[in-house]
Amino acid sequence: MRRWNPLLVFALLHGVAIGQTIGFYAMAPVLRDKPYIAERTRRTVRADGKSQWRTEDLVSVLMRDSAGRLREQIDAKENSDGTGVHLATVRVLDPVKMQQTDLNVVARTYVSFPIPPEVKNYQRHPVLDCPKLVAVQKARMTMGPVRYEDLGTNTLLGVAAMGCRVMRSGDAPTKSSVTEIWSSAELGITLSSVTRYEDGREEWDKVLNLRVEEPDAALFNVPPDYTDALAPPKRTNFNPNLDLLAESGSIEWHDGTATLVARGSSPMEDVAETVEKCLGVPVSSERPFQMFLGDLLDVTDPKFVAQHPEPDRRAFASKPAKVQVDFATNPDGSAADVEAVLKAVAVQVNQQQPYEFTVEKVVRTKFTMFVLVPTATHDEQGAVIHPVPYMETTVALRAQKAAISDLANQMSAQISAKTGYRFYCCESYVAGIPWGSVPMEYGPAEKPAREMLADLMETEGRAQSYMAACESRSREFCFINVKGKPIPAPPKTGVCRIPGYDPGK
Fold first, then answer.
1. In whole angstroms, what is the distance from residue 6 CA to residue 192 CA?
2. Which terminal residue of the chain, N or C, has fewer Cβ atoms less than 10 Å from its own Cβ?
3. Mind giving me the DSSP string for 377-417?
4. Secondary structure (3-state) at 445
5. What predicted TM-score, i.e. pTM, was given to this entire model?
6. CA distances from 179 to 41, 209, 411 (A)
7. CA distance 127 to 142
8. Which secondary structure element, helix H or strand E, spans residue 284, and what is its range?
9. Sign of CA pseudo-dihedral 482, 484, 490, 492
10. pLDDT digits (tens, 9 = 90+) for 466-485
């Protein structure tokens, strides 16, 4: 639920995980009974833009236990130019619990994420199979931009190692490089990888010390004195209005029917989360602009008000609403008509809150997404207005190849310029890793932002819905956050609930 501001969560997670070098696919395929402890150094030598070369080293300890769990600990280190530090962090990838855990050693906090189940069955060769690549290269009888040379075998750090030279040619010195890799097939790890670019840059990734032994099992557990960084803090604000803002959502199945119940200050967001979790259907929500004081509850901490009585420093939330919709189900427990359910929800919310919602549908090849769209609100004087929904803002992008997150940022910048509200998109984590890092070719395109975001989500592949909102009475902080794919819902009976949130506790 909305316990944390999404951009705050992003900043927190970025601080927790900064500098980590392993993602959850590093544990695939899961290798059991192959334990090791490796001291590792990653070095980057590059120009700093002032015709000077700068060297950065990142030292870590990487280990695997007999269960296949991976752990990487990175030491704190100040950058050579004094621009900042790498935080001391720990990441644990657990294929037994299918969970990734990041530890912030300084703050003594942790964040845990589920690892997608498909990762466990992901098959790849854990080290570069150079003889096979060379054979394929010879069979093609042509030399492409990437060439391989088998360096044979050697002994490194007391274990047998296979060597491979990878030569990449490009149309610029920054793209041409030679990489020499030595790997242990037995342990499934790279012992040394050195890349030298034509322009003088170098990247090293070397194991300096290797012990083939079982690491301490306690190192793979969260220390008992660490706290969950995403857990709600203890209540310090005793404003009675907070007691009115409890959020919840559930679906209860009967014989051939089911009942959806949700409540909260932004009930459409609770409904979207409930339908996604309990029915496996992607549902996006867009929060209406909330500018009129008469529509809101003041939830500011009384202690803060006593010190800062200025009205523009107050915190507000929309007055709550509760919905209850009965609907027919298919034999497997799924909704016979999800769109009809959402439209019935919109009718009830429109009767209780001073906004108006409609239900839209966005269809793509890989998914169909329903969107709960606000079409009316009040201006600051309380007059009813019908602004163009901000996700229907027309966005134009030129033809380009860029990271999906960069395209999303360009989209949000145009929404900001045209609406006068500052939007941020899409600083989200999906399954513990940032969304939108992969590149894509896109454009030229001119279409509503909602349609464009659906294009980006379909290509990126890990999200099928989003949540968009502006803070109450604020034009400076609006966000669009993508959400992970809904897990296909199995046949349902009984009751399904989303995690409730009661700010009054």
1. 39
2. C
3. EE-TTS-EE-PPPGGG-EEEE-SEEEEHHHHHHHHHHHHHH
4. strand
5. 0.61
6. 16, 21, 37
7. 25
8. strand 283-286
9. negative
10. 999 999 988 989 999 999 88
